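2 proteins. here.
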Amino acid sequence: MSHSAAAPARGAIVLVRHGETDSNAARILQWPDTPLSARGLAQAEQLAQRLARWPIGRILASDYARARTTAECVARATGAPLQIDPDLRERNFGDLRGTAYKDLGSDPFAPGYTPPGGESWEDLHARCDLVWERVVKLARETDGHLVVVTHGLVCRSLVTRRCELAAGVEAPQGFGNTSVTLIEPGPPWRIALANCVAHLEAGQATGRAAPVA
């Protein structure tokens, strides 16, 4: 994982995963209305303090509670307007939502696996491709940086399928809660910093990504 406190070049996309929830900590596939935990709220405030030092022009967020609350913290700190886009939602795990990882009979993240009543990988990627086009358009229209607050698997899809890595940047193995991934203006859209949680307290900034969903 890359760590840096430096601000990105103007016009970047600042890709953010939401703060921690109790379901993250307990390794449970979550429901849409799962709120941030007390720790997650603290993380969101630390993220907001970091981004308040950058020229943030606009914020776009998933409508799921954990992402929306994280984005609202950033909006208060930066004064940037917040827009909601439901296509930034986490992958739909259907009938598996509310189930602990340890109680699952199969790996819900395995290639080719489609959760009952949920989204396939192909469906998720197709949705992310559509929302990426809107994100790019909005970034080009924004005076300052565009913050995009979403979820772990959406971050993975966008970073691995729509962006390149800048020299010296390693591909992230996961995305920690409130992690910052900086995407330089493109094309090509290039990742200058991946999965950075330098804004969190030293005890939390371990680089270990929490369960993605």
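next one coming up
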Amino acid sequence: MIRIAIGLAAFAIMTVQASAYPSWWRGKLPGCDEPRVLNQVQRRIAYGSTRVLGYHLAIESFDAINQNAIKADGASWIDRRYCTAKAWLSNGKSSEVVYLIEATQGFAGIGYKVQSCLPRYDRWRIYDAWCRSIRP
């Protein structure tokens, strides 16, 4: 009898949509232009371009930061903010940078995670052609 009750309770919890949970449980999404987000974008690009792609590029600064879309309070358990910016690189050129901020995706589900991509320099299509998989 206890197994049936536990099973019914688990089923009821699983069928509740993510939008029914309070915002404090779902996590907070920082803005596209927040320094801590831009710092993570810089670190990820520098790491990937040096250790994976062999370009030795770094982002020096950002311009024209835009939020393209936000997917929050919907049926998904993960709130997402899609951003683009113009990045000035260490080689003196500029490039579009695409990045995605996902709530509750940090270590052990605490905090947020940032994924970033330079479409022009992604020769291995890590995020598909022109960073399509991290765009809205």
